[in-house]
Design brief:
globular, 327 residues, single chain, eight-stranded mixed β-sheet, alpha+beta, 10 helices
């Protein structure tokens, strides 16, 4: 007798990311990133409370204070099994949304309790990510030119055909120089390296590899998706100063450790959902029409390897009769 299928929690989580994306998208281009975040957090928390799970936020927005956020350690769900770790980014790209830029996402990921890596107060990691074809061929400690050659070989391309995506930050200047010296192409993004990592594993994205220093929470969240997609992400903690180096030492965090998929999320059973807030490489943004909105989402479950792109239409007259969210 075949095993009874388990719940696909990602299909419930996408309701959460859709709500957050619609709420945040109302603030697109209005110049107020705090309002973007506030709207997304309120919408997420409202829907998360209805999901049947006993969740704890492991990757959130720091310790609880007076800010309206989904904070590390917060209990999420209705308290019923299963017990899960949660990685949440109400809007990966709040500034992008506020300024009307592309590539912002509402993101949520789950895995079994105790499986997610917790970087504590170390908010940055050095990263490399590739899709399934090149998984197992790259090394974060190798020169950039070597990794570009490895990806090119795995994908049957020349290095000059390889496109690298990375955050446009001064801290990534050395990576930019090395990619140019090796002859690779570069796609610079202002924010949103969760989307950048996942794009390396999406066949028609045109992105071959992610490099550079970005957020630690985003690395753990992206790993939940990469496990399902067959891709690979490698990271190392990147302290900004001596105080953060001392924090790592006191917290027992190894700055020399290479953190791969399984070190970031030690689970074969991950769930990932993301909805576009503003359009980008991976997903379309929210579109508003008279009395309704259209959303575009990515839903992934690692156990089955199922990847869904969900296009949904939402009627505000009916949603507002069922929810406290101000869409």
């Amino acid at each position: 007798m075949s095993e009874r299928p388990q719940r696909n929690l990602a299909l419930e989580l996408v309701r959460v990311t859709e709500a957050a994306a619609m709420a945040a998208a109302r603030w697109q281009g209005r110049g107020d990133k705090n309002a973007v975040d506030q709207a997304a957090v309120d919408a997420m928390r409202n829907i998360l409370g209805t999901v049947e799970m006993d969740g704890v936020v492991v990757i959130g927005e720091g310790e609880k204070d007076e800010a309206p956020m989904l904070y590390n350690g917060e209990a999420i769900g209705n308290g019923a099994p299963p017990e899960v770790d949660i990685a949440v980014d109400p809007v990966d790209g709040t500034t992008l949304t506020a300024e009307g830029g592309p590539g912002a996402l509402a993101v949520l990921a789950l895995a079994e309790r105790g499986s997610m890596y917790a970087p504590g107060s170390l908010v940055y990691m050095d990263k490399i990510a590739v899709g399934e074809e090149a998984a197992g061929t790259v090394d974060i400690e190798a020169p950039v030119a070597h990794n570009l050659k490895q990806v090119a070989k795995a994908k049957g391309k020349s290095v000059s055909d390889i496109t690298v995506i990375m955050l446009d930050r001064p801290r990534n200047r050395d990576y930019i120089d090395q990619v140019r010296a090796a002859g690779g192409r570069i796609r610079l993004i202002r924010d949103g390296d969760i989307q950048g990592a996942i794009a390396t594993a999406k066949e028609d994205s045109g992105i071959d590899i992610l490099l550079g220093i970005g957020g630690s929470p985003e690395a753990v969240t992206a790993a939940c998706a990469m496990i399902a997609l067959g891709g690979e992400i490698q990271c190392k903690l990147w302290p900004r100063n001596d105080e953060e180096k001392q924090y790592a030492n006191d917290a027992g965090l190894d700055l020399t450790q290479i953190l791969g998929n399984r070190q970031l999320v030690n689970s074969e059973n991950t769930f990932f959902a993301a909805t576009g807030v503003t359009g980008g490489e991976l997903l379309d943004g929210v579109r508003f029409d008279a009395g309704r909105a259209t959303t575009h989402s990515l839903v992934i479950r690692s156990r089955t390897g199922t990847i869904r792109f969900v296009k949904a239409t939402h009627r505000f007259d009916r949603l507002k009769s069922l929810s406290e969210i101000d869409y």
